[in-house]
Amino acid sequence: MSSQSTLLRRLRGSLTTSRLPQFLSRPQTSSGISRRFPTIPLHTPDSYEPRDVYDFHSLTRVPLPRFLNPRLILPCIAHCVTVVHLKGSDPSAPSYTYSIQASDVRPLEITLPNKLEDEMRSQGSLQLVRPWHSKFPGSSAELDAVTEEQLLSTLERPFNALLLSQLPHDEHRRIASSIRITAQPIDRASILKSKIRIFNIV
């Protein structure tokens, strides 16, 4: 086995068993992903594009998360932010509280250490995402009635979300938050029509 294949296998193992759960569970107090995880250079071409979209009938084709040079390639259930409203602020902290609405999830509040720029608040520029986990039901086998019920039961629970802002060239940047962002799907129908997208996070 080549050294490159060995490196990729180790990377996949570390993402699915250790680093990714830590990345999702800790409060978002830094905007730089590279501060949390060292970059592991890979000189292999992308096997998929950021525009790739997966529904709940193609879960076995969803790729694993990985690092590619300075980018984190992360499959996520995407919820486009449609409404952003500043509820209050404390510049001395600093702290800015926003109420937001996003597709297929219940309205929620977030607290950020930095004020959102006006262009970020325009519709379509922000994404609230749920990183896809390779251990979710349906990731390794085709959905049947039992697996679909297990998947829906898992996905209808509240989850730790990431807030991303869109950049040029199909890239996104994670927006740091003062406290953990917790979101919840509206209902099972909203879960079934959700899509999994690939995000290049820098």
Structural class: alpha+beta
Number of strands: 10
**Average pLDDT over all residues:** 78
Overall outline = globular
**Number of structural units classed as domains:** 1
Helical content class: 10-25%
Major sheet strand order: 3-6-7-8-10
**What series of H and E elements makes up the topology?**
HEEEEEEHEEEHE
Strand content: 25-35%
Major β-sheet annotation: 5 strands, mixed, barrel
N- to C-terminal distance:
31 Å
Q: Helical stretch count?
A: 3
Radius of gyration: 17 Å
Q: Uncertain segments of ≥5 residues (pLDDT<50)? A: 1-19, 23-48
Region (Disordered): 19-38
Explain this structure to me?
Residues 19-38 are annotated as: Disordered. The protein is an alpha+beta fold and 202 residues long. The chain has one domain. The protein is built from three helices and ten strands. Strand 2 (66-68) and strand 3 form a beta hairpin. It is globular.
Layout: helices, strands, pairs:
Layout: H1 3-25, E1 53-54, E2 66-68, E3 71-90, E4 95-102, E5 108-112, E6 126-131, H2 145-155, E7 159-167, E8 171-174, E9 181-183, H3 188-192, E10 196-201
Parallel strand pairs: 8-10
Antiparallel strand pairs: 1-10, 2-3, 3-4, 3-6, 3-10, 4-5, 6-7, 7-8, 7-9
